Amino acid sequence: MEELKVFCPATVANVSCGFDVLGMALATVGDEMIVRKTATEGIKITEITGQELPLETEKNVAGVAGLALLGKSKASCGFEIAIHKKIKPGSGIGSSAASSAGAVWAINQMLGQPFTPLELVHFAMQGEKLASNVAHADNVAPALFGGFTLIRSYTPLDVVQLPVPQELYATVIHPQIEIKTSDSRKILKTGITLETGIKQWGNLGGLIAGLFKEDYELIGRSLEDHVVEPVRSLLIPMFDTIKKAAMTAGALGVGISGSGPSIFALSKGEAIANNVAEAMAGVYQNTDLDFEVHVSGICSTGVKPI
Ligand code: HSE
Predict the structure, then answer these.
(1) CATH number at residue 210
(2) Domain span at residue 30?
(3) Pocket around ligand 1 at a 6 A CB cut-off
(4) Torsion, CA 114, CA 120, CA 123, CA 127, rounded to 10
(5) Is 38 found in the same domain as 138?
(6) Overall domain count for the chain
(7) Over the stretch 120-174, which tens digit does the pLDDT of each residue have?
């Protein structure tokens, strides 16, 4: 295989109660990437469309993730990468993760799959480290595995794939402001009380049980975040109003997507997810804020050839 074109899904990290450990991939929102094998060793980013991002390999998340993989492989070839960005950086739906995951997945395929999916998560995390100074895996793991993933442990890395209830749909609204993950991590408190911990891990367990039992009500009442949302929601215009509008329109639950500013809702069925999109959009339509809104199923595959 000399060339591979892939879809790299957008992802919602944290999913309210799982800061840094839970994420899910979106089926219809994502980037495209074309990876070509070359005789020259190394990684060359040949083209980026859709966004202004660095072409220098060491400054580009796809480049860095790809180099991490090549550094562990015996390959005597190199790769050229063209990236067609549809996910805006700083949007909160895993822009850097899509590029990092897409690069390592495609290169691994073209080398004959020498690496396991877990090893690919490791390599893609190097892209996240470049983007946000922290090698968090809650975007790259769902981008690579698809569906919902739990990072059970970082050391050693242990990723658990979770089931996706068939009728679950996501609505994501992105107010057109940029919040860098590195900045929105700086404002977080470094400690939590035992009382807060009890609420948070109760919800995380509840959400995971809800996914296994296809219990939409349980999923909904577990979408609570007592740790991060109270702090980060202050950076997001009209967060509480959007949340209320989405819940009134029938959403199971609402939260901040990753480090924001995007806000996500989960709903049972596409029709409700569309109503939720309309309700969320209605809030920003009454303001000067530009926004984008997406309704999507959950991506079951992760990065895939197109
Ligand atoms: N868990 C990370 C954070 C995800 O919330 O900072 C960033 O997309």
Answers:
(1) 3.30.70.890
(2) 3-162+301-305
(3) 13-14, 19-20, 136, 138-139, 181, 185, 258-259
(4) 140
(5) yes
(6) 2
(7) 999 999 999 999 999 999 999 999 999 999 999 999 999 999 999 999 999 999 9
